[in-house]
UniProtKB/TrEMBL annotation:
The keyword DNA-binding applies. This is Integron integrase. It comes from Sulfuritalea hydrogenivorans sk43H. PANTHER family: PHAGE INTEGRASE-RELATED, PROPHAGE INTEGRASE INTD-RELATED. It holds the Pfam family Phage_integrase. The keyword DNA-binding applies.
Length: 346
């Protein structure tokens, strides 16, 4: 008879192999590196939550208990709980080939209805003017001027930036969709200089026997010389080389996202902004300022890459503020004499 302790040891020893299977399946289905990291993290937490039991020996009750604990005990956001659920469904359906029934007993975290933080044009100018790092400033100006998400900008390739037509082709955006957005005319000179710097850096890498870029969907297998082309280089490359987590090769990646996030946080503090500002705030401000200037909402929808116009409609809240707002009835009173005075006790 095998003891319970030996069973746990066997299951714990098997978990690294399980995670390798999950990682391999994620890559076969072309999930992004960030999704891979998130899914593996949630699967580890799920296994540890149930005392290192192997997921093959668990099912619906254990999944429901874990997700309910996230909502009730840890009080995570609804989006966080949804991501954990997606990770576990991927594990059971794609790796263990187990179809879980509808998880109706899960206590769902409430999805709050929040309005995005939007800066005024004066606040945006103050924020961008406080960024000391010239490369970070160029990236942030491009984010505000084009409406791209941070990683869409950092993963931008030279071939997808056309300064002649002043357009950017965003490849594989959220939901795996391509779209076209604009290049601000004010950034043309700075972007020309950036591309010249990238070319010089790429030529130096080629001389050193490197210079190959990471290609999507294993295109390098069919075109071995393609990764060395200038068009596949990042518009905003990192200063040094690092190991590519997907291939294990030493390559020049793009600028680190945390560097840009730290620059925004510091610039917001230096500018004295009281709003909770993040890099994504620039995307919100891009959409709102276009709508305020009279741009058609369908055009804004296409520039942002939203599938449904209802998603873009959230930015219309700003149109009911400032000079365009519905006047308050308080502002319709003739003067302050209309207010009754409070009687003071004697």
């Amino acid at each position: 008879m095998v003891s319970n302790n030996s069973c746990v040891a066997d299951e714990s020893a098997a978990s690294p192999r399980l995670l390798d299977r999950v990682r391999g399946r994620l890559r076969v289905k072309h999930y992004s590196p960030r999704t891979e990291t998130a899914y593996l993290g949630w699967i580890r937490r799920y296994i540890m939550f149930h005392g290192k039991r192997h997921p093959a020996g668990m099912g619906k009750p254990q999944v429901e208990a874990f997700l309910t604990s996230l909502a009730v005990e840890r009080r995570v956001a609804a989006s966080t709980q949804a991501q954990a659920l997606s990770a576990l469904l991927f594990l059971y359906r794609e790796v263990l080939a187990v179809e879980l029934p509808w998880l109706d007993a899960v206590t769902r975290a409430k999805q709050p209805s929040r309005l995005p933080t939007v800066l005024t044009q004066a606040e945006t100018a103050a924020l961008l003017g406080r960024v000391a790092d010239s490369e970070c400033q160029l990236i942030l100006r491009l984010l505000y001027g084009s409406g791209m998400r941070l990683l869409e900008c950092l993963q931008l390739r030279v071939k997808d930036l056309c300064l002649t037509r002043r357009e950017i082709v965003v490849r594989g955006g959220k939901g795996g969709k391509d779209r076209v957005t604009m290049v601000p005319a004010r950034l043309a000179v700075a972007l020309h200089a950036q591309l010249a710097r990238v070319r010089a850096l790429h030529e130096a890498d080629r001389v050193a026997g490197r210079g190959d870029a990471c290609l999507p969907d294993d295109m390098a297998l069919a075109h071995p010389r393609l990764p060395y082309g200038f068009g596949w280089q990042y518009v905003f490359p990192a200063a040094g080389l690092s190991v590519d987590p997907q291939s294990g090769r030493l390559r020049r990646q793009h600028v680190c996202a945390k560097r840009i996030q730290r620059a925004v946080k510091k610039a917001a503090q230096d500018a004295g902004l009281t709003k909770l500002v993040s890099v994504h705030t620039l995307r919100h401000s891009f959409a709102t300022h276009l709508l305020e200037s009279g741009c058609d909402i369908r055009s804004v929808q296409e520039l942002l890459g939203h599938s449904d116009v209802s998603t873009t409609m959230i930015y219309c809240h700003a149109l009911n503020s400032g000079e365009r707002a519905v006047p308050s009835p308080l502002d319709g009173l003739l003067d302050s004499q209309s207010f009754p005075r409070r009687s003071t006790p004697t």
